[in-house]
Design goal:
Elements lengths: L3 E2 L4 E2 L4 E2 L4 E2 L4 E2 L4 E2 L4 E2 L4 E2 L4 E2 L4 E2 L4 E2 L4 E2 L4 E2 L4 E2 L26 E2 L4 E2 L4 E2 L4 E2 L4 E2 L4 E2 L7 E4 L4 E5 L8 E2 L6 E3 L6 E5 L2 E4 L8
Parallel strand pairs: 1-4, 2-5, 3-6, 4-7, 5-8, 6-9, 7-10, 8-11, 9-12, 10-13, 11-14, 12-15, 13-16, 14-17, 15-18, 16-19, 17-20, 19-21
Antiparallel strand pairs: 21-22, 23-24, 24-25, 25-26
Length: 205
């Protein structure tokens, strides 16, 4: 298996790409970035310096992943998603001088295993999106997202739970705190605002 890089893309010589990874037209992968196996970097996507990306990650067209973001295995980043990295963005200092790279401290977004970010959603610097969570299209994530949470809105708030298949979970009648995936029949338990998989069942499709 080999890496596929389109001629119109820009991949720095110091970037590391795992076997089976494809970088499509006009995408840019900056210096020191590391991508795992079987990743897809869509047309016009941007991967910043030193970004860490796991295996089987999909970055759809025009997604912007600014350093020092970290993406776990199996993460989906939808079209035109933005992962920001500056708590106090300014082009100039208070005295009007142009800010340089050493004038601020980058704060990366962490997206854990299996999570998905819908089209045109934005994750504000420093937030963590939990395992297998789902961020709705157009949402603005300004605080951490729990594992398996379904969040939507501006700012994003939890509106439900999802399983590994990405389908919204349904509460089991007469069994408080127990949730089921309609697609896989996987079971999940909720306690104190935290959802966990029950008895090791993965809920995988």
């Amino acid at each position: 298996m080999s890496v596929r890089i389109q001629p119109s893309s820009q991949v720095d010589a110091t970037a590391e790409l795992g076997d089976g990874t494809t970088v499509w037209d006009l995408a840019q992968v900056r210096e020191g970035a590391r991508l795992g196996r079987d990743c897809i970097v869509g047309r016009g996507a941007y991967v910043g310096p030193g970004v860490r990306i796991g295996d089987r990650v999909k970055l759809q067209n025009h997604a912007l992943v600014y350093e020092p973001a970290e993406l776990g295995d199996g993460v989906f980043i939808g079209p035109a998603v933005v992962l920001t990295n500056d708590f106090y963005p300014r082009a100039v200092d208070p005295d009007g001088t142009l800010k340089r790279g050493d004038d601020w401290e980058a704060a990366g977004v962490v997206v854990a295993e299996g999570a998905s970010l819908g089209a045109r959603s934005v994750c504000v610097a420093g937030v963590r999106v939990g395992r297998w969570a789902l961020v709705a299209a157009g949402a603005v994530v300004s605080r951490d997202v729990p594992d398996f949470a379904l969040v939507a809105g501006v700012p994003a708030r939890r509106i439900g739970w999802v399983g590994r298949a990405g389908v919204r979970l349904v509460a089991r009648e007469g069994e408080p705190g127990l949730w089921e995936c309609p697609r896989t029949a996987g079971l999940y338990e909720e306690a104190d605002g935290v959802l966990t998989e029950r008895d090791g069942r993965s809920g995988q499709a």
